[in-house]
């Protein structure tokens, strides 16, 4: 049995300015650094074998801070996987949230991405909407986004680690929850202080818990 404890990276400047932040990689703001330390203290007693993150700096920096607060820090192995990156918004990278949604979805109905999801859009359809609206065709397709995340979780599940810390991104975490535990997924994107737990038993991945507030 493997448990994967998933948290979102600390708050960044693009989060502060309400910008779409996919592969764009703004640094953590002081509040984000402090939040990562607080999350680390909340998880200090967890006996992690492995700490994983995407290769984006906001995630890897958060991972390192959380591990630094852990009582078993010297025993925790680290792993970065590019496949665990946030969704790539392409042309819409760093757009203001509302402006990007309006231009991509051709409506004022969805000021936030979560509003489209709550109105029946799947992650695949939402990503494909950005891709179709991207004049350069660079935004990631839904199939590409979902398949790399699914493969990444399955890759972590066979590392042999019993307890894994995974530092990820808001859309990435929500998409994983939607694939492996649609009955548990929340109506909001995960916040910086929340925890999702994945259970892997006999090769099957399920969402044990979504959205637990840690501080």
Q: Let me know the average pLDDT.
A: 97
CATH topology: Rossmann fold
The low-confidence parts are: none
Please give the order of strands in the largest beta sheet: 3-2-4-1-5-6
Helix content: 25-40%
Order of H and E elements: EHHEHEHHHHEHEE
Distance between the termini: 27 Å
Based on the structure given, which CATH architecture is correct? Answer: 3-Layer(aba) Sandwich
Radius of gyration: 16 Å
**How many domain modules?**
1
- The fraction of residues assigned to DSSP E strands is 15-25%
- Indicate the structural class: alpha/beta
> What is the assigned CATH homologous superfamily?
Phosphoglycerate mutase-like
Shape: globular
Number of helices: 8
Secondary-structure blueprint:
Blueprint lengths: L1 E7 L4 H4 L13 H13 L7 E4 L3 H12 L8 E4 L16 H9 L7 H6 L4 H11 L8 H16 L5 E6 L1 H11 L13 E8 L2 E10 L2
Parallel strand pairs: 1-4, 2-3, 2-4
Antiparallel strand pairs: 1-5, 5-6
Keywords: Hydrolase, Isomerase
EC number: 5.4.2.1
InterPro entries: His_Pase_superF_clade-1, His_PPase_superfam, Phosphoglycerate_Mutase
